[in-house]
Design goal:
Layout (H helix, E strand, L loop, with lengths): L10 H5 L1 E4 L4 E4 L1 H16 L2 E3 H12 L2 H4 L2 H4 L2 H9 L6 E3 L2 H13 L6 E2 L8 E7 L3 E8 L2 E8 L2 H4 L3 H20 L3 E6 L2 H9 L4 H17 L2 E6 L6 H7 L4
Parallel strand pairs: 6-9, 9-10
Antiparallel strand pairs: 1-2, 2-5, 3-4, 6-7, 7-8
Helix pairs in contact: 2-3, 2-7, 3-6, 6-7, 9-10, 9-11, 10-11
Length: 248
């Protein structure tokens, strides 16, 4: 009888994750990175593809969630939508510019964001409360650096958007306004919109809302902001709610 002998591969080889015990971080192995990058290059250089090929690349990206976190879902959401809309696994279709944008994002940032700490994280250094009314955006914070307030009126076209869009716009506007002060910070963010909080975490199948989540995450990535967003009842968001109803 022939016995099967299993090689004792390191865990990092089996799951494509490499721990760095000295720094307390994990990263995706070079072999896995190269495999994902090759799949992305093939798709971007040949934008007529099939759901099977696109699904394979998206699956590779999502498989590195232990290191990349919710970024893998947010930055593949439109690709997933395209896969779901395909009539069959092997029928060919053209990648639209939004799907290509997601793929190019991973080409550009796969190595840049390839690091995540597995040590206990410090408490948030800044706390924001944001809200959006029919007319305006507002946010407020109290931190060691003092009080920060952001406020602006909505343009006419923005007023016609959904409440969720306006809540996401409040988050995006505040991050843009205070990006220099928030760099390399862990930010705790409170919103009274359950939908907005969820979309920032996982994206949305509604494209303009997904675009807004994409913009928020891009700002955070550029400024190395770690955003921890949480829903709270409107009764606990009184200051931002009051400010959002102010008219310039």
């Amino acid at each position: 009888m022939t016995r099967m002998r299993l090689a004792a591969h390191p865990i990092s080889y089996l799951v494509g994750v490499k721990p760095e015990w000295g720094t307390g971080t994990i990263s995706v192995t070079i072999k896995r990175i190269e495999k994902v990058d090759k799949a992305l290059q093939n798709l971007v250089s040949h934008p007529k593809t099939s759901a099977r090929k696109l699904s394979s690349a998206v699956g590779m990206i999502i498989s590195i969630v232990p290191v990349m976190g919710s970024l893998t879902r947010i930055m593949t959401h439109h690709c997933q939508k395209l896969i779901a809309c395909s009539p069959s696994w092997d029928s060919l279709f053209d990648l639209d510019r939004y799907c290509i944008l997601e793929l190019e994002f991973w080409q550009s940032n796969l190595k840049t964001v390839n690091c995540r700490s597995f040590t206990p994280k410090p408490a948030a250094t800044k706390t924001f409360f944001s809200d959006a009314s029919q007319l305006a955006i507002a946010s407020a914070t109290h931190s060691g650096d003092g009080k920060l307030i952001a406020h602006r009126m909505f343009a006419e076209l923005e007023r016609a958007e959904s409440p969720t869009f306006r809540e996401l716009a409040a988050i995006k506007f505040t991050l843009e306004a205070f990006e220099p002060a928030l760099q390399h910070s862990k930010v705790k963010w409170f919103t009274d919109s359950q939908a907005a909080a969820k979309i920032i975490q996982v994206g949305s199948m509604t494209f303009n809302l997904h675009q807004m989540a994409f913009a928020v995450f891009s700002i955070c990535l550029k400024a190395r902001i770690e955003l921890d967003i949480q829903w709270i009842p409107r009764s606990l968001n009184e200051k931002a709610n009051y400010l959002s109803n102010m008219i310039d």
